[in-house]
Amino acid sequence: MSSQTSNKTAGNDGWLKPAVDAAARGMIAIRRCARCGRNHYPPREICPFCLDDRLDWEISDRANGVMLAQTVLHHSNEEKFRARLPLRVGLVHLQCGPTVVAFVDDRCIPGSGVMVSARLDEEGRPVLAAVPQQRD
Amino acid sequence: MSEIDSAYAPARGYDDVVVTAPVTVPYVRRSEHGAAWFLGRALAGLIETSGVAMDSIDGLTVSSFTLHPDSAVSFTQYVGSSPRFLESIPTGGACGVIAMRRAARAVQAGDANIVACIAGDTANASSFRELIANFSTFARDYVYPYGAGGPNQSFAFLTDHYMRTRGATRADFGKLCVAQRENARPNPLALFREPMTLEAYLASRPIAEPIHLFDCVMPCAGADAFLVMHRRRAEKLGLPFVRILSTIERHNAYSNDPIQMRGGWLMDRDRLYAEAAIEPGDIDFVETYDDYPVISMLQFEGLGFCPEGGAPEFVRRNTFTIDGSFPHNTSGGQLSMGQAGAAGGFLGLVEAIRQLIDKPLGAAVPNAKVGLVSGFGMINYDRGLCSAAAILARP
After folding, report:
1. CA distance A69 to chain B (A)
2. Dihedrals phi, psi of B226, to nearest 5 degrees
3. Which fold has domain B17-126+219-237?
4. Is B203 in a helix, a strand, or coil?
5. CA angle at B91 for the pair B223 and B65, rounded to the nearest 5°
């Protein structure tokens, strides 16, 4: 068992299950406040804009945004990533509000539009990945 | 913002509360000791340096990442201390200034007579990975699964964005790193003292582009500490001391910025200078939190040494060496001394005290009367959340 999961307190994150289920279907889940209507990420049980706890999940197959910044990792602290280096990761500002960390396709360019979708990683956690926006 | 919130009410000054007895438990790359050993040696160092008895230290602040699962409370039993004022200061790179201002208010209010502020951590083959893998919920679940790059990765985003939007180049960052290494040369406690050229900086291998090896601090083990007490007590003990002119702290500033391009200093710096009754131009040296060079640039901007976005140009026209223009990170900073966990948040403050009592680890800044110390801490998700600064002066 990896350190990331071993230190988790069991049973206190059931509220995250909809995001996990969505990612298993390739869908991205963003937290949306039922009171003030604003979206946030990472997901919380309390709205960081109005402190309400009535929060919904906005689930879609992709979220559009702009890649603000990127890095190419040549070093990782986890063995499982080392075979995949160099690894490109970005910070994407979603049109719906929040900024997310995502794996990014080699074709993504900082300052340009990207589409973000979700999947489950090998440990069963939702992770996001970005590809360039299609022009059609 | 309501009228009540925006009304300017200056904070009370620190009167005759002073800072003294800077102590460093020398940094080492790795250690078999636990964090409590480093913190305990720092406490012993304070007693040895000041001549104050253990029982007279009735206040304690503790900052450490690797003390876990122990705490400031368990540390009192570990070292046999019985303080009547105890604080755990978990603000990482901002913990030095914040510990000092907590301690100063406690002394001023009479909740403690002498407060020992200590910060330290151990380091071994697995401690750094364990720390960053579980740094916070957001970091663990929403950053670490994306390549486990740790702080290098998060600061790479900020550096990449800053370079593109502000026109900073790697040579600008390199100039700061080379100057700090120059400042470290006479400092016997620096892990890295050999000269570094800009060419060597530029040729260093990529770690998390655009961050390369010599942008990164070396995680290590060590501790730093100082005492806070009344001026007359310091005088009676014969301890050289510095005055606190003003301090600020801020957490989670500008949270709606899509990416961090400024820290909290900007929100509070008018207060910082007004309460000290000085201008940025009156500052003789500056100690920033230098993990990483882009963050030093954000501090130059946030603290008013140059306009927002103006740090690259500011870097090009100053030397940052001890004997040059704008003396900066005069002990060599974390880039040269290493980053001993939470002690990284104390390093700049302890060096500023030393400069102002004429006991620097390395070279002295000529005619230094006023120093500014800045802190930056805790990348919880996509940005550093804590900022702090203090202006210190000779008596």
Report:
1. 5
2. -160, 170
3. Peroxisomal Thiolase; Chain A, domain 1 (3.40.47)
4. helix
5. 50
| C-beta atoms of B133 and A91 within 8 A | no
CATH number at residue A43: 2.40.50
Contacts of B153 in chain A (CB under 8 A): 71, 73, 89
Count: domains in chain A: 1
Beta strands per DSSP E along chain A: 28-33, 39-40, 55-60, 63-73, 87-94, 99-104, 113-120, 126-132
Among B135, B137, B141, the strongest candidate for a mutation testing the A interface, having the largest count of A CBs within 10 A, is B141
A102 interaction partners in chain B (CB closer than 8 Å): 146
Which DSSP helix (H) or strand (E) runs through B6?
A: helix B3-6
CB of B217 within 8 A of CB of B334?
Answer: yes
Q: Could you list the pLDDT tens digit for every one of the 395 residues in chain B?
A: 455 565 567 889 999 999 999 999 999 999 999 999 999 999 999 999 999 999 999 999 999 999 999 999 999 999 999 999 999 999 999 999 999 999 999 999 999 999 999 999 999 988 888 888 999 999 999 999 999 999 999 999 999 999 999 999 999 999 999 999 999 999 999 999 999 999 999 999 999 999 999 999 999 999 999 999 999 999 999 999 999 999 999 999 999 999 999 999 999 999 999 999 999 999 999 999 999 999 999 999 999 999 999 999 999 999 999 999 999 999 999 999 999 999 999 999 999 999 999 999 999 999 999 999 999 999 999 999 999 999 999 99
Is the bond preceding B258 in cis, omega lying within 30 degrees of 0? no
What is the least distance, in Å, from the CA of A1 to any CA of chain B? Answer: 13
Q: At what angle do helices B151-166 and B293-302 cross, to 10 degrees?
A: 60
- For residue A6, tell me if it sits in a domain: no
Q: How far is A87 from chain B (nearest CA, A)?
A: 7
Please indicate whether, in this complex, the C-beta atoms of A74 and B381 are within 8 angstroms of each other: no
Cis status, amide bond into A110, omega within 30 of 0 = no
Closest Cα of chain B to A135: distance in Å?
Answer: 24
Q: With respect to residue A66, please indicate whether it lies within any of the assigned structural domains.
A: yes
Helices (H), B332-389: 333-337, 344-356
Residue to mutate among A75, A103, A121, with most B CBs inside 10 A, is A75
